[in-house]
Amino acid sequence: MTLSSQDSWFQTDVFSGRVVRSSIWTVIISFFWFLLITFLSLLLQSPLHPIASLLNTFHQLLSPSSLFYLLVFTSTTVWGSVNHSQTYSMTPSVFHSWSKLLLSSIQPGTVTSLLQFSLQSTVTAWCCVKLVWPQYSSLVSSCADTPDKVTLDTSWCVSHDQLFLLGCGAAAGLYLGVRYHFYSDSWVSFPVIYKDTTSQVKQQMKPLLLSSARQALHILKYYYVLYFMLSLTISSSLPLAPLSSFFSISLFIAALSLTTLIIIVNSTRLKIFSIFLTAPLPPLPLEQLISSLSPSSPLLHLLSLQSLARLTATSNSTRSTIFSLSQPGGHPHSWKTVSQACLVSVDSISSSISSLSSPPPPPPSTSTPAKPLSQQVSSPNMRRLAPNTGAKLEDVAVPPTASPVSQLVSTITSRVESIKKQPGLALLFKVQPDAGLRAIFCQSQAVIWSVDILSYLVASSIAEDRFGVVQKELSIILTSLLVLDQKMSGPRRIGGVVDGDRRLKQELKGAVKAGLYRIAIQFGEHIQAVPLNREHSSKMMNYIKLLEA
Q1: Residue 332: is the preceding peptide bond cis (ω within 30°)?
Q2: What is the pTM of this model?
Q3: What is the pLDDT of residue 153?
């Protein structure tokens, strides 16, 4: 199967079906969250009548007048799932510097995505207001010209409270968009221990309500401050809510409920999508699985490594096929493909860490060797026609002249660097000291499964490799794993909070330790026969004696 046919098969037979199933699950669970938040909102409005609040919940959501808003809410949820299926990421993001973040935020694609998040959240907030908060459901209403008297002359007034709630929804959407692009919310993470879909859904959905409510309070804290400042500065030109609205408990509960709904629906979408997308591949022929290890789509590559790691750990027939020789010819093509793909992943991250931690080499010297002085003539029959100056015209070094374009570029570059060092802008252009290292560990998922595959195959080869295909590369594999183990013990800390890259780094470190222990326990003292250097040989002996932690 060619590379293009593999990707086509994966997109049509696997990926599209998983997107559809995750969208259906997201809609169903989002309806449950809508029902629960509606009940809690009605209960807070009348806390002494819980039964009536429950009945009103079903009445408002199941009445024919609510069908349109429920349809809009469903369409918005599906729209968000489709957008996420096209923009998800297989690696977490790392904060580099504020200047790079600001530059990324003004890219056309990022701006469009942030606007989509805000629009989607505003529509969700509008549906919630229409269904749950009827007192704020009208955008315009008739009002008297004079507030003290009831007159026949009326005019249209804008509902400041609904504008406040819709603005709250837009702010929540902008917050979610920023997290999606710059704080790894778009990252599809694989579980450490795979469980069935139902168990994962239950585990992921349990803490969502409380965590979403906390995030909603965090958003409202800044939204109230921003809205208050806008009310004081530009209230004369914009129809903002009066300051008395800030002390309305009912308006605060409405803002909290719709913001919580927006966040919990978004979190449900992201988690359900990750659960379905990271599910193991269906049973495939081993040849097709091995061929998927070649450069392909990132998701297909990771899923192939995941399936192969599971098969090499549990299936004797899979290991026997990998150890076998081709007929005719007698070449270990399967083993070569698997081992080379895994070693490339392991060596790439080791070399990346080395290039980052090693100091740069000094620039080559540009000094030219001095020419020997010409021998002076001292014969009495010859006289010198010109004084000896000690240097000829062709011996004088003339510095190369730079072109005007290069001089302009050099001037601009030096000017920009001097501007970056100004006290007010230094913080904006300051690069995080661990940004490069964290970016390397963002690519650790493929390396984790590569280490598992190599360690399972090597550990099983001592009893199952009848043709000795593994023994020829045993020293290379052990050296790669030991070098990576040494590199992993070098950097002690790569971040503050537990981000995605930090989690992947810990998983990679545990996978390398477990893999080396797996090999050392199976080989025992026979590992001394493998040609390794003194440092690596003593390291393997420590693993045999269970001294490595």
Answers
A1: no
A2: 0.82
A3: 45
